[in-house]
Amino acid sequence: MTGTTKELLLGCIADDFTGATDLANNLVRGGMRVVQTIGVPAGPLDRAADAVVVALKSRTIAAADAVRQSLDALRWLRSQGARQIYFKYCSTFDSTAQGNIGPVTEALMDALGTGFTIATPAFPDNQRTVFKGYLFVGDVPLHESGMRDHPLTPMTDANLVRVLQAQCRRKVGLIDYRAVAAGAQAIAARIAELRSSGCAIAVVDAIGNDDLLRLGPALKDMALVTAGSGVAIGLPRNFGIQASPGAAQLPPAGGAQAVLSGSCSVATHRQVRAFIAAGRPGFVVDPLRVAAGEDVPAQALAWAAPLLAQGPVLVYSTAQPQAVKDVQERLGVDEAGALVERTLAKIARGLVALGVRQLALAGGETSGACVQALGVTQMQIGPQIDPGVPWCYATSGGGHGLHLALKSGNFGAEDFFAKAFRMLA
Question: Which CATH number does 10-244 carry?
Answer without folding.
Answer: 3.40.50.10840
